[in-house]
Design brief:
single chain; about 325 residues; alpha+beta; Jelly Rolls; 2 domains; eight-stranded antiparallel sheet; 3 helices; 15 strands; ConA-like_dom_sf; D-mannose binding
Length: about 325
């Protein structure tokens, strides 16, 4: 009986040891493949309540036009009034190679059927100027992401519509056709007048991709809007927000801005993170797991056989 217990103890130790090694190796691979990027907060391009200091200024941002600051609630770029223009711009350029800007905003108005015109987020070489393109100048250089709530002409998509444009400093915005000639990517998104907190998250990896996600259906549920591959922005750009009303109007508010510098992963690991799910790869991984399990079991069996042969030889000797 004692010999049987000794055998079982020996087998158990071998099995637990091998299983632990096997499990740790699998966990290590999973961690390496799914680790996220590290982030460094950029205070110079982030903004929170109460927005201004005792001198009614902000160290890192300028604001102008019809912009009004409510220190307990929001920065209102435009009121729900006709012919207003407001803007908010970083004082320093955003020079990070890879970055992410997440901001909370609110678009709403008193008219449930006729409203506009919209707001925009900018990463451009110019800053703090008023103009006809959602409150900023035309023929800009850099990136503009437009939250367009009013259709100037008949389009295949509905409004509100979120779209991106890369400006070269010479090409005008196609205002009459809602930017159709400048359309880089976009999505329909019911971002106006929502009871849920509305947010946008813009992620940029230089020479890799630009991605926009939106929160407007449920809290912490991020809806993909678009991803544009192989995007390169100017080296020096300023972060800005602007809004415009014309014959129709809405209030356009910025509640908070959080900007992070992203520490890039090695290309191989980064590619693994952003790729889509591949059923063939998953099947192959499962097959390898079964093979490893069979090999481990066989190895344990061989060790047990050797151990028993050794025990029998020892008993014969004595």
């Amino acid at each position: 009986m004692k010999a049987i217990l000794t055998d079982l103890t020996f087998i158990g130790i071998i099995f637990i040891t091998l299983f632990s090694i096997f499990a740790l190796s699998e966990a290590d691979v999973d961690i390496n493949q799914n680790q996220g990027e590290s982030v460094i907060p950029l205070r110079t391009h982030s903004l929170y309540m109460p927005y201004i200091d005792q001198d009614l200024q902000n160290r890192w941002f300028d604001f102008g036009g019809d912009t009004v600051i409510n220190t307990n609630r929001f920065i209102r770029l435009t009121h729900d009034r006709q012919s207003q223009t407001g803007w908010l711009w970083s004082r320093l350029p955003l020079t990070s190679t890879n970055w992410q800007v997440e901001f909370e905003f609110k678009i709403e108005g008193s008219n449930p059927t006729l409203y506009g015109d919209g707001m925009a987020v900018w990463l451009t070489t110019d800053r703090a100027k008023s103009g006809p393109v959602f409150g900023f100048i035309d023929k800009f250089e850099g990136l503009g992401i437009f939250f367009d709530t009013y259709a100037n002409s008949r389009q295949a998509h509905s409004f509100p519509y979120v779209m991106a444009m890369l400006g070269d400093g010479n090409t005008p915005y196609d205002h009459a056709n809602d930017g159709k000639a400048n359309h880089l990517a976009g999505c329909e998104a019911d971002i106006r007048g929502q009871s849920v907190i509305t947010k946008a998250r813009i992620t940029y990896y230089k020479n890799n991709y630009l991605e926009v996600k939106l929160q407007y259906k449920e809290f912490d549920q991020w809806e993909p809007c678009f991803t544009i591959p192989n995007v390169t922005l100017p080296t020096v750009t300023y972060l800005g927000f602007s809004a415009l009303t014309g014959d129709v109007s809405d209030s356009h508010d910025i509640v908070s801005i959080t900007t992070n510098n992203l520490i890039s992963l090695p290309p191989r690991l980064h590619k693994t993170i952003v790729r889509t799910h591949d059923p063939k790869t998953s099947s192959w991984s499962g097959f390898l797991f079964v093979l490893k399990l069979i090999a481990t079991t066989a190895f344990i069996g061989v060790l047990v056989l050797i151990y028993r042969m050794f025990k029998e030889q020892s008993n014969k000797t004595f």
